[in-house]
Amino acid sequence: MFNRPVIVWFVSLACALTGVSTLAANPQADDARLKPAYRFTRDKWIYVHLEGSPADIGYQHGYLLSAEIADGFNAVKFMDTHRTKRDWEFFRETAKTVIWPGVDHEYQQELRGIADGLKAGGVQMDLWDVVALNAMEEVPDYYVPWLEQQQRQATAQARPADHCSAFVATGSMTKDYRPVIAHSNWTNFPVGSRWTIVFDIVPTNGYRIIQDGFPGVIVSDDDFGINSSGLMVTETTITQFRGFDPKGKAEFARARKALQYASSIDEYVKIMLDGNNGGYANDWLLADNKTGEVARFELGLKDYRVWRTKDGYYVGSNFASDPKLIKEETDFDPNNPGSSMNARHVRWDQLMDRYKGQIDVAMAQKFLADHYDTYEKKEQPSERTLCGHGPNSPRGTPEWDAPPYYPSGAVTAQVADSTMAKSMSFMARAGYPCGGDFLAEPFLKEHLEFDWEKPVLQDMKGNSWAEFRAGEKAYGSVRAGEK
């Protein structure tokens, strides 16, 4: 006879093909902690509802997404160990000794809950694997370069990658004079093609959250989220940043806390500054839907600055704006027109000027799918276009953190306006924002230099835009414990 794990595997496969949760088929679903939780799929996204105490939310997260967490963890582990030339034990030890002390007790409980939920779901990952997964941005891209500098060695060319394109606009810029926010997540395809979770989180304390995210990670991390106080949040990373404080608080925990507890731009800034470790240095684009105000919050390690307005816009494409921060904490050249960051910055400003007063959700979706290269002055999808297509780029640019044809770029997109934020909903598209396909097999045949990614590189096919709303259910969704 088949043993229980094999039976669950067959049930999971059958349910996955129909879009139905597997929880009702598993005796563990009788656990009271799982009663409020459920999941469903839509247009390649997995929507998961989590509710309760930190430990319960973590347990629901780990259990409901156990298969996706195991798969995503495998991709992150594969890519990060290859890139840094360090084994996974290094990441686990760093998680335990450097990251964990800088995580608030509330989120320590949630991380433990994820590990417990994974165990109940039959996945062999422990707490330090889960913490290392949550620190997948700040350990390889910030801590490792800092450590190598302290040791005066360079075992790997690790540095912050160039993630995301985004904007936030309000006042006379938008169609209804209210905030509109939009974002596309840029990363490597093995990880990015798995960054397709929508989290609806109802914590015991703090505000309700709806955000996109990666399986097993407690914060959006790319980032795009809305809370029930009307705060709308996204960001793009600061390119070529250098700096890290190993005694600071983990960035992923601060970012989750800021979205969960901040009711204003000022409160968001205050929480992010508390214990800032410099990990995952970003330009945060924020909107307060209650006041109509938007802001750009540029946060390095030593330097930060906030710009804000009730009539205007801020854009992001991995460039820093504060001259002091650029000089003291980056190697970024703001005057190179051929770099991905600067070319996209130019394009953002062109679009904002051209469509002033017309910006809404539909227009934002169009912007994120844009393929105009301002350096080449023609339609040509590449790492210099808002809809980033790394595999289309034969040469790369001096500041593009990838070799020619590297399989990376825009992997998802998200958009919301004021009305959607009020109802805690947003539009999302899995895959290229333009809806195009990336097919792994023909790509690897043409670019044998990336054959090493074959174990984790998968197709990233185009999908439609889909709307997600906090508290919604879909046909085929099943609550844990239901029979």
How does this structure look, described?
With 483 residues, this protein is of the alpha+beta class. The protein has a domain at 165-191 and 231-468: Penicillin V Acylase, Chain A, CATH 3.60.60. Helices cover 33% and strands 21% of the residues. It is built from 15 helices and 18 strands. The protein has helices at residues 4-18, 54-64, 66-84, 88-99, 105-120, 127-134, 138-151, 189-192, 251-261, 265-273, 323-329, 340-354, 361-368, 418-422, 440-446; strands at 38-42, 45-52, 165-170, 180-188, 197-203, 209-213, 224-227, 231-237, 282-288, 293-299, 304-309, 312-316, 372-373, 378-379, 408-417, 425-430, 466-469, 478-479. The protein has a 10-stranded mixed sheet, covered by helices on one side. Strands 12-3-4-15-16-17 form a 6-stranded antiparallel sheet. The chain has a two-stranded antiparallel ribbon with strand order 13-14. Helix 9 (251-261) packs antiparallel against helix 10 (265-273). It is globular, with a radius of gyration of 21 Å.
Secondary structure layout plus pairing:
Blueprint: H1 4-18, E1 38-42, E2 45-52, H2 54-64, H3 66-84, H4 88-99, H5 105-120, H6 127-134, H7 138-151, E3 165-170, E4 180-188, H8 189-192, E5 197-203, E6 209-213, E7 224-227, E8 231-237, H9 251-261, H10 265-273, E9 282-288, E10 293-299, E11 304-309, E12 312-316, H11 323-329, H12 340-354, H13 361-368, E13 372-373, E14 378-379, E15 408-417, H14 418-422, E16 425-430, H15 440-446, E17 466-469, E18 478-479
Parallel strand pairs: 2-5
Antiparallel strand pairs: 1-2, 1-18, 3-4, 3-12, 4-15, 5-6, 6-7, 7-8, 8-9, 9-10, 10-11, 13-14, 15-16, 16-17
Helix pairs in contact: 2-5, 4-6, 5-6, 9-10
